[in-house]
Structures are given as structure tokens and as C-alpha cells.
């Protein structure tokens, strides 16, 4: 009882004049407030409004343009020398900003280029598209060309009532759902292959713009689903159930327009949203002429990696200045991370999560320090 009495912290209250007082809870003065020493107020941290204003002031369009130009590399395919060079430049920048960067190398299976076997689309004339959909099933198929709008389930149900989709090659325009969902829907309806293009009704673009993406119905390395792909990883051969079962290929709007001009079949009902805005094209459902699709090769992506890297670098610069000059003190550690292989379905980010999720952030950081891990994600 005595120890509890002596060590018990007396409650503090504010008087009308703002002075701190102590309330005694024993003896003859019980319940009577007596003056106590004034406690200085704690340092007030920046509010969220202050932080957003600081970021607004520091993130200028001129700085972004400069960083975009500096980090715009000609080749940065995941796993390439350009990709490694980009990672090293980010690492060096972070060191310059007095951060504590690390890199982590994962070993994943990615489709690689084969210049001897380019992708082809043959519909009267042979086209070799440069665009690419990663993880598409390789192979050569031939089938009736059918237009299926966005490839949503309701779109394909509408077409199926007018044109048989079994064994067809579906021509779809990008949008509304992901490439992977489009290909999965087409496969479940019995189609043998998918061609995807950008319609000028949905995108303001140059009509010879090449299109890149992936068709894995999931994220991360589809050949090590659920666990990280380290060089020492020894697991039984497995693959994601989200890998496509049919070939898929992107084509330009110009190529799609040439196909649609000769597709034949019933004209699209004006009451539907099937009609795009490609010039000199009457949108028809097709189903009357065969087309051949052969998929085997790789093409490189472009804009997304540069833009994402530039945003990351400028944010790191801004936070560095806020800590140095504006007394910004975050209550938690902030990790600035750059991941590669995003065009394959957020492979780098997913691999990192597969490593870090089983452990707490603090224990992960300690492990990285003790084992001298280097994380290039």
C-alpha cells in the first residue's frame, strides 16, 4: 500500500487561468488544488494540411520534367542492363539524399525476346505487331474473326446470340476490364485467340501506337505463386491458375481498322455501345472470314516505368528537404521503394510483399541489416 501511495502519479488539471495544478488525494488537503510548476507545452508537429502544402510547394512541374529527362532510358526491360542501370541510379540518388537504401534481387521467369520468331497476324496480308502481352500462351491458331467489343461477359453473351464464338479469334478493344479478364472471358466462351487494340473513342492517341501489357489473371511471378523467387528457392514446379489458356496479341488502331473494314457479318446494333470511332469503319460482328494469329515473341514497354521512377525521386527529394529545412518529423519510418517488372503484373512489388508479409517491418529491417541484404525492388 505504501509503495503504491508513494509511486502513484497525482492527476493534473487546468485552472481557469490556464495554470497547471496538482490535486492531492490524501491528508487534510484532500480535494483542495494547490499550485504546481507550469509544464511547458510539447512541440506541436506539422499537421496534415502543413505537410500537403509543403509537398505542393516542392513538387514542381519543372522538377518533374528534369527528372523525366534524366531517367528516360532507351532500354529498361525487366532484367536487362538498362533495368540494372536504372536501379543503380535510384540507389545512388537515395544515398545522396542521406537515406539508407538497400537492394534485393529476385529470380523470376519472364518471357524473353526471340527475333527469329516474331508475332504475326495474317488476314489477307501478314502483319508483325511490335506490341506484346506478357504470359500469353504461345502457339499458332486459325479461326473466324469476330468483333466482341470490350470482351465483357455481357458483350460476349450478346455476340454469342448472333455469331458462334467457338474456335473464333476475338477482336476486342481495350478498356472497361483488364487484358487478363478479356482473355479469360474469351477462353471460357470457346474462343481460340484474342486480338486487342485501342479505339479512338476511348483513347486520344496516334493510331499507330503500340500496346503493351500482360494477361496473367493475378500479380507477381506466376511460376512461384505465394512465395518469393530467391536464387536459393527450391520448390516443386508449379504455376499460377491465372495463366491464360489461349494466345493473345495487341495490334494498333490502324491494323484493327483494316480488319474491321473486311470483317463481314451482321452490323452492330446502334442501341449497343459496340460502335467505336475508327475512321472509315462500319462496326460489324464478323464470323465469316478466317484469320491466323501466331504468338511467340517479346516487345518492350515504355512510359510507365519512367513516370513512376520520376515521381518516386521527386517525392524523396521533397521529403528530404522537409526534414532538413521544415522540421518535418514523421512518426513512423517511410520506405521509398522502386520495383521492376511492373509490366508483367507488379512482379517486383508482389515479390517484395511475399518476403515481408510473414514478418513484421521491424524484424524484416533487422534481418536486412544482419544479413546485409540489398534490395533492388
From TrEMBL:
Residues 141-207 form the PA domain. Residues 21-37 have a biased composition (Polar residues). InterPro entries: PA_dom_sf (IPR046450), PA_domain (IPR003137), Peptidase_M28B (IPR039373). It holds the Pfam family PA. Gene3D superfamilies: 3.50.30.30, Zn peptidases. Transmembrane segments: none annotated. It comes from the Eukaryota. Residues 21-43 are annotated as: Disordered. This is PA domain-containing protein.
